[in-house]
Amino acid sequence: MLTYDLEQRGNKTLYEYLYECIRSDILNGRLRPNEKLPSKRTLAKNMDISIKTVENAYEQLLVEGYVRAEEKRGYFVNGVEGREGFGKPSVGPAGGKTMAEQEKEEWFADFTSNYKVYEKFPFSTWAKIMRETLSYHDTELLEMVPTQGIYPLRREIAKHLYEFRGMEVSPQQIIVGAGTEYLYGRLIQLLGRDGIYALENPGYLKMTRLYKNHGLSYRYVDIDGQGICPDALRESGANVAHVSPGHHFPVGFVMPVTRRQELLEWAGEERGRYIIEDDYDSEFRLNAKPVPAMQTLDAEHRVIYLNTFARTLFPSVRIGYMVLPPKLLERYQETVSFYSCSVSAFEQYTLASFMEKGYFERHIRRVKLYYKEKRDELLGELKQSSLWGKCRMIEENAGTRFLLRVDTPLTDSQIKWCAGQRGLNLSCLSEYCRGQVDGMEGILLISYGDIPKERMKEAVKRLTAIFE
Amino acid sequence: MLTYDLEQRGNKTLYEYLYECIRSDILNGRLRPNEKLPSKRTLAKNMDISIKTVENAYEQLLVEGYVRAEEKRGYFVNGVEGREGFGKPSVGPAGGKTMAEQEKEEWFADFTSNYKVYEKFPFSTWAKIMRETLSYHDTELLEMVPTQGIYPLRREIAKHLYEFRGMEVSPQQIIVGAGTEYLYGRLIQLLGRDGIYALENPGYLKMTRLYKNHGLSYRYVDIDGQGICPDALRESGANVAHVSPGHHFPVGFVMPVTRRQELLEWAGEERGRYIIEDDYDSEFRLNAKPVPAMQTLDAEHRVIYLNTFARTLFPSVRIGYMVLPPKLLERYQETVSFYSCSVSAFEQYTLASFMEKGYFERHIRRVKLYYKEKRDELLGELKQSSLWGKCRMIEENAGTRFLLRVDTPLTDSQIKWCAGQRGLNLSCLSEYCRGQVDGMEGILLISYGDIPKERMKEAVKRLTAIFE
Asked: Which domains does chain A have, with CATH numbers?
């Protein structure tokens, strides 16, 4: 009987993983041509997963021609030579790419990812609230949602921002949308296409692709230890600065108030200058008191605040929000409010209730604890290693990662290659830099959220071995 | 005790309507300053609504300063003179606009809307499947969704397109997103910003705003009785034609195959020419056999097919999809596939299951029947009226509306004004035209979905009176 270790599936969904296992067994010959696959029910029972999961995996194999379905008999493996004729029409090299081909490499330890933290999410509570939402709101859930999102959710977000980020904003200023990528799209339409956007260097690379895809002009502006440099910002000619004062990505520092004031001063110098405050990940900083958002200092209404729930809840939730200053809100109403709200009423009501009942706050506390424990485990191992004497930690309170400056003659590509040889996925700060990277080499980005407890010791041992 | 007739709430949600009723009673003095509002529980019980609904309405009144909350005593009406000092900071005229101010006018009969059809949606079935989805998939629902959407949903969409639109496409060609507006945004990034887009004239006005907001060049190209004119299209210099061959908006005709072929020929003449097939509303045509999609004729891979579930399910569901031809799919993978999928896993699994179990198909049949009944009622009344001798029906099988060409000396604005005086909301074809409207005047767009049965007779009487 087929059986696979579901613990090995990493970031994949159950059905994707199952599909890939069977596909690989067909390709490597473990499953032979014309062999019958177990019935969906049997396999589901055997592996303790839902029939639905097996069904989806079988369907995918069917569509791609690895198996065939014979009426009333079940699923059979196709011979390799027979495979060409099966399946839906090919759609070219990229479109025809199977999930298996798109899969990520398997690492012994992945120091670049904090994906698995979603496993801490209280799914049963969320499911309970979903059920309550269905009963409470009934057919109300079908009705058109106001373009900025339902009022109860915007009210809860306003409360959250007040309590956790020190922001006093009205629910009327809040716009809910299907993730921050979506909201950036709206924001760009609002700020106009003629602007020049300044991006932090080093910084969040995905942003570059987003601005590029929107056909916008952008400039990289170097950061120092405090954030984007105001003089460099002036020189860049940009009128919109995209910054992450609460939690710089990837470095992790908080922008001090003096630098925030300098940036606000820059914004006030000319009409049409704005600051986009990207507050992604700021919830997880480990120091006791979070720093208020930059928006709270914004007397001249130049700051647009953005954040997402995909990071604080779980990856598949597509809800983000932005807070507009009054003048932009007026322009929003005039120019882009004709769009429909892009998040379903059901999920908005569920989230509003989840927040209102205090579960959101509790969850954030729990996740911070999770990160703290992981970090302590990792640090414990690091301090006992010979690597500890050769490195220096940077931004150790950033919460989801820290930086490790290592004293080494190796280049960053050599470090990554050596890591890869040892089954470690590692990234370096220089990967997030544009242009000159002098002084940026030898700085490792250490995310610890996805490394299993039982592998921590060995992971640090392998990491240490790179620099020996 | 406060009590309001919830039947009168029209398109509003319960809490919005309740909020507006109370607010209006405060403004008109029925509720006096310092008067205590009933407790949430009592009002909920009295009106047979959930406490949550009352709570949301009270909260909104509180935020806007119409009432105040006194600890352990309850909610009290604020005096008008005292209102200025209350509530969250004002956010300017547009942002501060209350729901009441944004509300639509109340009509005796609205001939411009088919909104209420969502009341036919089998909500209890949907809710049941949502509950099943929660149990079946469990924490799988939290995981990152593939950028094009979950496979089972794309598989169901491919099946649906095969069965109802005659399209043979692979699930790999399908991209699921948070509504068509969202997908157009992606598509524009894919086709490039340098293109010139051709829009049907008359046509769907929202599209103009969308292209304008994206900073794109577009041209209006006149339609004749068959669709967009190929010669005019050539003259326009456009390279992307945005058309609705399955169900023209607002006219409602189907583009004949000859015209489809002419358009495909136009697309084949030059590299980089594409046709966007907007298939919105095509599901509800009343003739027995639906016409296959234009995409089915597309041998040269120039057609991009788009459709949405917001129209076929209910307005608050934000799920649309597009089908890319193979070459564009490759480009999609290279350039815009870095975006996260914008629809939550939960709603995707729910919809996939709803479709798989045949509910979607059944629902579409039911809605077609609903439209047919409404249309028969309306036609029955029209045929008995004196208006019938002065008008001619156009596109009577369009399903969700028909056109009525009336022999009248009145201009379209006079018609609309007279209709408004009689409590009728009416729109004319000329409103959807750009430039010259010769020969377009005197054509009424008659949507019948939102007119209650008991008002149909009177509505037709009032309509007739305009032209007497």
From this structure: 6-103 (1.10.10.10), 146-343 (3.40.640.10), 362-466 (3.90.1150.10)
